[in-house]
Design goal:
Blueprint: H1 2-22, E1 35-39, E2 45-52, E3 57-62, E4 65-70, E5 74-79, E6 88-93, E7 98-103, E8 109-113, E9 116-120, E10 125-129, H2 141-146, E11 148-152, E12 157-162, E13 166-171, E14 174-179, E15 183-187, E16 196-200, E17 205-210, E18 214-219, E19 224-228, E20 232-236
Antiparallel strand pairs: 1-2, 1-10, 2-8, 3-4, 3-7, 5-6, 5-10, 6-7, 8-9, 11-12, 11-20, 12-18, 13-14, 13-17, 15-16, 15-20, 16-17, 18-19
Length: 239
């Protein structure tokens, strides 16, 4: 009888352990996910169709068990030791629960940004938020003075270093080529008349059409991007 009780006790324990791990998994959703990424260095940015290795879930270790965390269940993932390859995290769930896990990502993060396809290593991120607000917190004046800044027409703000070395402006009285170091700001909104405005550091202001199709930039996270001109609102060069 004692052996039977021990056997059934073991079975019950394993069932509880399985159910404990399974509580963090529910039916997967096929819809794409939009995620706000907070990197270790640099401003937050928004990624559409966020995935890791083409999947919309994370495998993780939780209290000695392997569990699957579906994006559809998650509000946010906070990396407790950013840069640590063991990926200890705190996960906030949509039903109000919070718990700690060790993620086991089999590849880097991927998705689409306003500038095109995007990818990043998990060691470069502090937080992932699966509920994106309408806007991001602006940088302080001290931060923006140290980095070039690109303001996108959708409200995103990117900071880092402009890699494009010169810009060509076509005006009604000729075409002018300016080195990046000569420029203070470029406004690409057009004022409804397809007119771009270039403000030089010497104080001159010129109107015309920027002929560069895209702007190359290295973000503060180290990621290099190419931003399509028609999606850029303003370029502000560091002081």
């Amino acid at each position: 009888m004692a052996r039977k009780l021990t056997f059934f006790g073991t079975v019950i324990f394993l069932m509880l352990l399985f159910l404990g791990g399974a509580q963090y998994s529910s039916q997967a959703q096929d819809k794409p996910f939009t995620v706000r990424v907070v990197p270790i260095s640099g401003q937050p940015f928004v990624i559409e169709d966020f995935n890791q290795g083409g999947t919309r879930f994370y495998d993780a270790q939780w209290r000695g068990s392997n569990v699957r965390l579906l994006f559809s269940d998650i509000v946010s993932i906070s990396f407790l030791k950013p840069g640590d390859g063991n990926y200890p995290v705190e996960v906030a769930f949509k039903d109000g629960r919070k718990d700690t896990f060790n993620l086991k990502p089999h590849s880097g993060m991927q998705g689409k940004a306003t500038f095109g396809n995007w990818s990043m290593s998990h060691t470069q991120v502090k937080q992932l938020s699966f509920q994106v607000g309408d806007s991001m917190a602006p940088q302080s004046a001290a931060e923006t003075s140290e980095y070039d800044q690109v303001l996108m027409k959708n409200g995103d703000a990117l900071s880092g270093r402009i890699l494009t070395t010169n810009f060509t402006l076509r005006t009604s009285y000729g075409t002018h080529n300016f080195q990046t170091k000569q420029i203070q700001t470029i406004n690409l909104e057009g004022g409804g008349q397809n007119i771009d405005i270039v403000l030089l550091r010497i104080g001159d202001k010129l109107s015309g059409v920027i002929e560069n199709a895209a702007v190359k930039m290295e973000m503060r996270s180290g990621t290099q991007v190419e931003l399509s001109k028609d999606k850029v609102k303003d370029i502000i060069f560091k002081k």
